[in-house]
Amino acid sequence: MTVIRDQDVIESVADALQFISYYHPSDFVAAVHRAYEMEQSTAAKDALAQILINSRLCATGKRPICQDTGIVTNFVEIGMNVRWETSAPLEALINEGVRQAYLHPDNTLRASILEDPAGARKNTRDNTPAVIHTRMVAGDTVDFKVAAKGGGSENKSKLVMLNPSDSIVDWVVKTVPTMGAGWCPPGMLGIGIGGTAEKAMVLAKESLMDPIDIHELRARGPNNRVEELRLEIMDAVNRLGIGAQGLGGLTTVLDVKINDYPTHAASLPVAMIPNCAATRHAHFTLTGNGAVRQTPPSLDLWPEVTWEPGESVRRINLDTVTQADILTWQPGDTVLLSGTMYTGRDAAHKRLTQMLADGEPLPVDLNGKFIYYVGPVDPVRDEVVGPAGPTTATRMDKFTDTILEQTGLLGMIGKAERGPVAIEAIKKHQAVYLMAVGGAAYLVSKAITDAKVVAFEELGMEAIYAFTVKDMPVSVAVDSAGTSVHQTGPKHWQGVIEEQAIELF
Fold it and tell me: Does any domain span residue 505?
């Protein structure tokens, strides 16, 4: 009989979470590189280059791929012949592994989990508790699938209860454009079909634990309806022209995964969960021989990709830039930022707008400044700040008009698109919205030369920082006239794909 000890679980979970914080799965790296090589859209190709460079930097520097180090999800299959040598429940062991991983002194990960989610939203400070799914199976081992899921992709999850006669492909094609680019494409779509509503969601989540193999499937041909659906959805979504980071291009998804389950005759539950460009998961099996350590991949797996700004790049001093300057910026322009910017996410924006409503002075002067939507990882060793990639900008849309009107803020930096409310406010106040690449957090942090908390320290990673940056790469996503590249880019490339019948990923 196999004996599993408490430390076997704790150490294995901790090691897996550290490992996946800085190593992409090799299949994912290969798939992104393939997309990079075939991409024809300059903006999308630049984004893919930054993702690949960031991935290699993280693998060598052993720091997180993304500042959002995720909510931990575990799928655990427990063999019925296993004996446990511990008095603690499995959930406690897994959560201790999460705690040790996220508080590791050499690679501290960002604590993103809040308890009392509909109330005080207090940070647990160690990223516990994990979400845990267990099932009993035949055998004498314990199999773990461990993932860390970022909010940007998780928040784009969709569930629909279709009629049995409805087309799943049509629903996916209709739904993906509504997800925007906050899930950081290119990535994977995990789809669960059948069971009940909650079963479909779990099926979708677990499907994302499988390796990318769509090319092997296409080469051999589908053997069943699920495999046919994978290819149909893959091709249909890529024909939308959404592209990397939603900028317009040839590759939106790298693979489509589907798990299904029998369902009621009157039902067709379909769930869809995207995995982002910082996808991360690991598998291991406890056999009674102690803890499992992940095997580091060879750095030869990463392609030698470089990124250089084009000749038309604008170099901007944030300490002297004026509104007259930003009126000349065009959608899609590459901009290198130097100087001082402030950070601010949801909690900070809520606090700032309440202070304005109450007539209180703000703790920072935003007049003529830029806000960067980011919640950075704490620094280690000689870092001034940990990985500091952008967060989804649409969450700040409802605050944008108030902030622009009452503070004199010139512009914002974030991830993905802005919604109609924010675009209208940007146009009204002749401000600008710049986009940094999601999935390139460690690369972005290399441009930050100084970082200090200047307000709301009690909010942790959601506090307001002052960043000093040197040549931080961004692009103009919404110009002062309200033109958005996330609207014009996909529309253009969808037309190009249709017109030229381009072979897709």
Answer: no
- Catalytic one among 24, 33, 349, 429? 349
Instruction: Please indicate, yes or no, whether residues 139 and 288 belong to a single structural domain of this protein.
Output: yes
Examine residue 185 and say whether the peptide bond preceding it is cis (omega within 30 degrees of 0): no
Helices (H), 114-257: 151-154, 168-175, 197-207, 214-220, 225-238
The answer to whether residues 162 and 146 belong to one domain is no
Q: What is the pLDDT of residue 26?
A: 94
How many of the other CB atoms lie within 10 Å of CB of 424?
A: 15
Give me the percent of the chain exceeding a pLDDT of 90: 94
Sort residue 88 into left (φ over 0), alpha (ψ -120 to 50) or beta: beta
Domain of residue 222, residue span: 151-277
3-class SS of residue 246: helix
Structure tokens at 14: 């901790």
118, 239: one domain:
no
Q: Quick one: DSSP state of residue 26?
A: H
Res 309: pLDDT: 76
Instruction: Give the separation between CA 72 and CA 186, rounded to whole angstroms.
Output: 21
Instruction: Kindly state whether residues 333 and 464 are assigned to the same domain.
Output: yes
| Model confidence pLDDT, tens digit, residues 237-293 | 999 999 999 999 999 999 999 999 999 999 999 999 999 988 889 999 999 999 999
- Under the banding of pLDDT at 50, 70 and 90, the label for residue 80 is very high
| pLDDT, position 269 | 98
- Within 178-244, residue ranges assigned H as helices are 197-207, 214-220, 225-238
CA distance 184 to 103: 26
Q: Provide the CATH number for the domain around residue 375.
A: 3.20.130.10
Pair (354, 480) in one structural domain:
yes
Domain count, the chain: 3
DSSP character string of 45-72: HHHHHHHHHHHHHHHHHT--SSS---EE
- Assess whether 294 and 398 both reside in one domain: no
| Residues 65 and 115 occupy one common structural domain | yes
CATH number for 211: 3.30.1330
Give ∠ CA 28-234-266 in degrees, rounded to 5: 120
pLDDT tens across 329-375, in order? 999 999 999 999 999 999 999 999 999 999 999 999 999 999 999 99
CA-to-CA distance for 109 and 283, rounded, in angstroms?
A: 20
Task: Assess if residue 495 is contained within a domain.
Answer: no
End-to-end CA distance of the chain: 47
Half-sphere exposure of 272 toward its Cβ, with a 13 Å CA cutoff? 26
Report, as an integer, the average pLDDT of 312-331.
Answer: 94
Q: What are phi and psi of 113, to 5 degrees?
A: -90, 130
- 349 classed as catalytic: yes
Please indicate, yes or no, whether residues 250 and 289 belong to a single structural domain of this protein: no
What letters, b where the CB count within 10 A reaches 16 and e where it falls short, cover 386-396? bbbbbbbbbbb
